[in-house]
Amino acid sequence: MGIISTFLGRFSKAIGIDLGTANTLVSVRGRGILLREPSVIAIETETRKVLAVGEEAKRMLGRTPGNVVAIRPLKDGVIADFDHTEQMLRGFIRKVIRHHSIFHPQVVVGIPSGVTEVERRAVIDAAKKAGAGDAYLIEEPMAAAIGSGLPVSEPTGCMIVDIGGGTTEVAVISLGGMVTSNSIRIAGDEIDEAIAAYIRREYNLLIGDRTAEEVKMQIGSAYPLQEQLSMEVRGRDLISGLPRSAKITSDEIREAIHDPVYAIVESVKLTFEQTPPELSSDIIDRGIVLAGGGALLRGLDKLIAAETEIPVHIAPDPLSAVVLGTSKALEESESDPTLRKVLISSARMH
To answer: Is 20 helix (H, G, I), strand (E, B) or coil?
Structure first.
């Protein structure tokens, strides 16, 4: 039986999925990251037929007839619309395994650490209905730590801060387990919303989500910059209803995003306060590691370092840390019992 399972394990497809609120990444064993697309699905409203998933669906936003809608089926890191999540997952799995396979793939999906048992089951069910053979879950902070190259199996404390689109996950990991963790539903999306709200309030200018995200990426910062940046923002004038533009500076955006950024900082502080003293000293020596798209916000590492007085490092590939960790955990779980422990199967859920 052991030989058969090893044979099946070696020749079946092993897929790691970072099912994010904003983007979904898929990695396939031996082939690396094959898909990195927005978590969007486009459907026809009358027939409920799926027209596109991912990048193609996002391109349809605002450019389609009234009978087509583009939906983000995940909210704050969890499934808000089960059927559409399942259809989106199926579309993504088909994109990476184009030809028919006699084996159903083994799938590991990264989930926020704060999700309920019901939400966990929903993800496993969605993965199985989308074509997975065996489906496992891994908590995102653990996946991000593995994908960032942290020594999670060792008896030493590592702190990871994973800032995605819908959630920020902070965890202290030692010996393959999360010693303490906090998950808050404040992350990249809330930073975008804060930018849009500020521009609406201060300039009477209505901008879309994509514009707000663009502003964040081009001139957003969590810590004062040596040289102030500025950009022109186009939107709709709330008084006249006509198109208008305004010049916005990086100082203004830093003020606009103060509240969500400091909520993330407070979550880091709280997690550190809950950490046992022996592991705290490891973290002071090793530093805090930032992963996820939010890690790329200018000066966030400096702000967290200034507020905690602990060195802060950005993961080598912050955007891919979770998906790299999901596939690595599955691949190495056969030989590493510590990594086998971090995978959650439906059998382990009560």
So the answer is: coil
Cα torsion 5, 328, 19, 272: sign: positive
Which tens digit of pLDDT belongs to each residue from 77-124? Answer: 778 888 888 888 888 888 887 655 556 788 899 988 878 888 888 888
Residue-level pLDDT at 229: 95
119 and 232 Cβ atoms separated by less than 8 Å: no
Domains belonging to the chain, first-starting first, are: 2-140+321-348 (3.30.420.40), 144-186+260-318 (3.30.420.40), 188-258 (3.90.640.10)
Q: How far is CA 40 from CA 5, 75, 193, 344, in A?
A: 36, 11, 18, 26
Tell me how far apart the alpha carbons of residues 161 and 113 are, in angstroms, rounded to a whole number: 12
Q: Pick from 211, 182, 318, 195: which is nearest to 261 by CA?
A: 195
Q: Report how far residue 239's alpha carbon sits from residue 175's, in angstroms, rounded to the nearest whole number.
A: 59
Provide, rounded to the nearest whole percent, the portion of the chain with pLDDT above 70: 92
Instruction: Tell me if the pTM is above 0.85.
Output: yes
d(CA 232, CA 326): 40
Q: Which two tokens stand for residue 213?
A: 């995200």
3-state class (DSSP) for residue 37: strand
User: Which of residues 6 and 228 earns the better pLDDT score?
Assistant: 228
- In 3-44 the beta strands, taken as DSSP E runs, fall at 14-19, 23-28, 32-38, 41-44
CA distances from 64 to 53, 57, 114 (A): 14, 10, 36
Phi, psi of 45 (to 5 degrees): -65, -35
Is 32 or 344 the better-scoring residue by pLDDT? 32
Mean pLDDT computed over 243-268: 96
What's the pLDDT score for residue 10?
45
Instruction: Dig out the tokens for 263 from the structure.
Output: 């909520």
